[in-house]
Design a protein that fits this description.
This protein is α/β, with parallel strands linked by helices. Helices cover about 40% and strands about 25% of the residues.
Length: about 160
């Protein structure tokens, strides 16, 4: 009985994530200030007119590290069309690890530190990595990705957003 109850609770949680992730009502991205590794400061408002991905990650997250080549490839394919990536390192990730990772992997997009945890909190209190938010040109969140995702579907969503 206990296993059945736990299974039902897990199903409700997963269904709740699914409903939020796939719901038709787009929510406006929160107004936050990012600080890149080189000290450049910018806000979500500064990104209006672009399609951008805010990707919460950590150097200790195996899935995050495994997704980076695809994130780089998508950025390289779409950046000249108005696509940006902001890879937000979680507050528990040591800055020197993040810097080393970004340099050794030659990450072509912006990497920002969330040393206070305020950015993660503003984006629905992100705790799990990887969690990513795709935001359209009007600043609306059009999709949230938790964990692994379908790369082909992701690219089609980015292409639709860039065309819109």
């Amino acid at each position: 009985m206990k296993k059945l109850l736990l299974g039902a609770v897990a199903l409700v949680i997963v269904a709740g994530f699914g409903l939020w992730q796939f719901s038709g009502t787009a929510k406006t991205a929160p107004q936050v200030t990012f600080t890149s590794l080189d000290g450049h400061r910018f806000t979500t408002e500064d990104l209006r007119g672009k399609v951008f991905l805010v990707k919460f990650w950590a150097t200790s997250c195996v899935t995050c590290v495994a997704q980076m080549p695809d994130t780089i490839e998508a950025y390289n394919d779409y950046s000249d069309k108005g696509y940006e990536v902001i890879a937000v390192a979680m507050d528990y990730d040591p800055p020197e690890y993040v810097r080393n990772f970004a340099q050794s992997r030659k990450l072509p997009f912006t990497v920002a530190m969330d040393s206070s945890g305020e950015i993660a909190k503003a984006f629905d209190d992100v705790k799990l990595t990887p969690t990513a938010y795709l935001v359209d040109k009007q600043g609306r969140i059009i999709k949230r990705y938790l964990g692994n995702y379908d790369k082909v579907a992701f690219r089609k969503t980015v292409e639709r957003a860039l065309a819109g």
